[in-house]
Structure formats: structure tokens, C-alpha cells
């Protein structure tokens, strides 16, 4: 089941985040996204009443941008990412976005493969994008129908 992320989910989300993302976002970052940012949409994936993954996006006029996308390690490689990706694509389509973009570390083979599977293509390289180790990022983009007015 997918539902919108709530403030009460954040302890669990941060628990997964700290094991999955380097450098992880802090709880206050997520609080900002949920409480303040008018463009943000965050969702959690629930299995057996427990959050096992989550994703976030910004929907800004005709552009959608994925900000985070995580399946907890214990549940990876079981096809669960489909539920989050289908949600992101349907929200972007409902919002009449022209495309969905994201940045991903060039070393993140699993995520790059996932995004390619869903029709994202590498559009550009952002040199030294990540401040922790100066790793490059791929800017990936998936074109959509659009018709934003
Ligand atoms: C990337 C991530 C979300 C994939 O989630 P997942 O639930 O394990 O993925 P799925 O089992 O649904 O697999 C979907 C596709 O992703 C790709 N994939 C997933 N894990 C992979 C791996 N270890 N190696 C290569 N490809 C992989 C494959 O294309 C796969 O399709 P296939 O099964 O037909 O080969 C997960 O590895 C993750 O949370 N990683 C840590 C957080 C992260 O890096 N997020 C992305 C930030 S940009």
C-alpha cells in the first residue's frame, strides 16, 4: 500500500534513511518538506503494516523532480520499487508535467538500472555534484505527455 508520508512516519523514515543514503537527510529536512515546501509530495510504501520504502518529489509547474527514492535493504531486489515509481509517474502525469528529472551518483548502478527500466535517459553529467566525495551525478530525465497549462 502507498500513502502520503506523515510527520509521524519520520522516525521510521529516518531509521531507513540512515542505513540507505549517504549523506542522509535529517529529520528537520523532511519536516521542512512535509510542513513548508508547497511543491513537495512524499509517499511511503507499507508492507505488513510497516514502512519498507519511501519516495519524494517536487512538482513545480510543468516539471517533476525526484528528490529521494529508497527501499529498505532487507526488502530490496523483490520488485517493490515498482509501487513507488508507478506513484511518481502517475502524480507527474496527473499534474500534466512535461518530464521527470533526477540526479543520481554515477556509481549507483542499482538506481541507474531502475531508472532506465522506467524510461529515464541520461541527459547530462553534473561534475563533482556530491560534496562528500566530489562524485559526479547523472542528470536523468523521463519525458512525459505534458499539456501543462
Ligand atoms: C535503487 C533501489 C530503490 C531499488 O529498489 P529495489 O526494490 O531493490 O528494486 P527492484 O527489486 O524493484 O528492481 C527494479 C529494477 O531496479 C534495478 N536494480 C535493483 N537493484 C539492483 C542491483 N542491485 N543491481 C542492478 N540493478 C538493480 C533493476 O533494473 C531492477 O529490474 P529487474 O529486477 O528487472 O532487473 C534500492 O536499491 C535502494 O533503495 N537503494 C538505496 C537508496 C538509493 O540509492 N536510492 C536512489 C537514490 S537516487
3D architecture notes:
The protein is of the alpha+beta class and 149 residues long. The protein has a single domain, classed as Gcn5-related N-acetyltransferase (GNAT) (Aminopeptidase). It contains 4 helices and 7 strands; from the N terminus they run E-H-H-E-E-E-H-E-H-E-E. The protein has helices at 10-20, 27-35, 81-94, 109-117, and strands spanning 2-4, 40-47, 50-60, 63-71, 99-105, 121-126, 137-143. Strands 1-2-3-4-5-7-6 form a 7-stranded mixed beta sheet, sandwiched between helices. The protein is globular and about 35 Å long. It starts with a strand and ends in a 6-residue tail after the last strand. The mean pLDDT is 96. Bound molecules: coenzyme A.
Layout: helices, strands, pairs:
Blueprint: E1 2-4, H1 10-20, H2 27-35, E2 40-47, E3 50-60, E4 63-71, H3 81-94, E5 99-105, H4 109-117, E6 121-126, E7 137-143
Parallel strand pairs: 4-5
Antiparallel strand pairs: 1-2, 2-3, 3-4, 5-7, 6-7
> Uncertain spans, ≥5 residues at pLDDT below 50?
none
Order of SSEs: EHHEEEHEHEE
Instruction: List cofactors, ions and other ligands.
Output: coenzyme A
Number of individual domains: 1
Mean of pLDDT: 96
Which shape, going by the Cα principal axes? Answer: globular
Number of E-type strands: 7
Instruction: Give me the side-by-side strand order of the main sheet.
Output: 1-2-3-4-5-7-6
> What is the CA–CA distance across the termini?
31 Å
How much of the sequence lies in strands comes to 25-35%
Amino acid at each position: 500500500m502507498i500513502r502520503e508520508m506523515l510527520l509521524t512516519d519520520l522516525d521510521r523514515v529516518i531509521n531507513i534513511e540512515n542505513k540507505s543514503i549517504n549523506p542522509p537527510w535529517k529529520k528537520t529536512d523532511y519536516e521542512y518538506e512535509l510542513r513548508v515546501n508547497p511543491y513537495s509530495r512524499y509517499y511511503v510504501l507499507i508492507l505488513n503494516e510497516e514502512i519498507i520504502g519511501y519516495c519524494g518529489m517536487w512538482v513545480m509547474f510543468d516539471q517533476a523532480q525526484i528528490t529521494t527514492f529508497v527501499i529498505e535493504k532487507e526488502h530490496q531486489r523483490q520488485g517493490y520499487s515498482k509501487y513507488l515509481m508507478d506513484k511518481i509517474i502517475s502524480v507527474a502525469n496527473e499534474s500534466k508535467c512535461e518530464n521527470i528529472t533526477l540526479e543520481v551518483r554515477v556509481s549507483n548502478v542499482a538506481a541507474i538500472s531502475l531508472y532506465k527500466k522506467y524510461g529515464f535517459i541520461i541527459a547530462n553529467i553534473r561534475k563533482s555534484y556530491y560534496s562528500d566525495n566530489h562524485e559526479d551525478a547523472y542528470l536523468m530525465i523521463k519525458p512525459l505527455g505534458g499539456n501543462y497549462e
